[in-house]
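Practice record 12: protein with iron/sulfur cluster.
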Amino acid sequence: MSASPNTPSLEKGSANLSAAKVKGHNESLPAATAAVTAATSTQKYLWTELPRIEPPKRNAAERSADFKEIYSLFDAETVQAQASRCIQCAMPFCMMGCPLSNRIPEWLGLAAEGRFLEAAAVSQATSNMPEICSRVCPQERLCEGMCTLIERTDPIPIGAIEKFINEYAFSHGGVEIRKVMPNGKTVAVIGAGPAGLACADELAMRGYAVTVFESLPNLGGLLVNGIPSFKMEKSVLDRRVNILRQRGVQFVPNVTIGKDIALSELLAQHDAIFLGMGAQKNKELDIPGGELKGIHQALPFLIEKNLGEASKLPPIPVQGKRVAVLGGGDTAMDCLRTAIRSGAREAVCIYRRDLANMPGSRREYKNALEEGAQFEFLTNPVALEGDLNGCVKQVRCVRMELGEPDAKGRRKPYPVPGSEFNIPAEVLLVAYGFDPVPFPPNTEWSQIQVNDWGGVIVDEYQMTTLPKVFSGGDQVRGANLVVHSVRDGRKAAAGIDRFLKG
Ligand code: SF4
């Protein structure tokens, strides 16, 4: 991590923490928390004097020229100041906004005192990859979106503080690899994405012998293939995978269960199985012209640009081309920003609702806008038109207007008659989302029931309809946030533990 802009410049900062007296994180957490509560009760109104500060971000021109992370760390003093804006409210809504129920006020209180190792220990108690979630969570929709301060001012920069304290822990020996007595039971985890890694980590910490099978050569699933390096550099994931290895987790890449090893064989060899195979089946583009050259699904494009030759995918050149991206989620934002970094002349997002109803993170939208992405809201593609060589040359679109909210509260878009127009594009990327890949029909997999879109059905302990087999993450929810997958992985590990202990 030494060359990364995210490497914390912590040595100097930590030396300055005179008030902080950074302690080892062996101190019991409740005692630490009590001390913090007392200390912070006198700081209840600091937020009126201290505005929120955003973490340092490279300027758009510089960052658009490479794939390195765009944010760097706060310095220690800024972390203390920003954390001290927390009012330690009696009803911590931020915790409710976090899918992991992270003990945010506790670690903010400790960080405010400069007790970063203790803060990180509290953070690690509820998250298997806080340094990853802090980078990729859309905080404005989760913890920060629920911060009590929002009623009066800007929220605490929770994600940036979480990132700092955990990077601090990594560089100061604050990530503990406890040795656990083996309990004699074995679990197979299928899929090395965030759900699988979280489940494996939790189980290893409970003494299970865990083997993670991954069909691809690299580990991390969506974390390595789908998330571009400008949001999280690969070294961050490698470091986390190494921690799992040190906890005793075995990784077996390049193995497809059902092809290289039968599910029944795996079941016979292990006390339980966790399925975390994600959701990688593309939602198809169903308009005339879909067969033209130059039309690609978002995921292969991101994987090819993320991994280069190692992806073993055919290159998708965008240099000097106009790229249109269909969809309004985070994957669409990733495609736009990746296309710009890959030399596209233009990158235009075509989305059928308006900005207020767009599912993508506002932070990523803003970053994309700064980097030169364009947005055509309330616009729907109706056909693709090609040139004489059969290559896409423009997207025929229609303007949309929003009607009444549907059952989920989202306003349904309707086409405006006579509003057709063209958007020129030589490359079209389809980012309409993903569903789980269906199990092969009439096989042993058929014992695992799925719902109408292919999501695996699980009970309250994440167990599928096939006893001993658990599941979670995108395979159960459909494409969703990393932090939800981590939560499912943790919940499934607890379910497996409960099941095997009878
Ligand atoms: Fe916020 Fe995500 Fe961290 Fe939870 S895991 S505190 S939602 S950044």
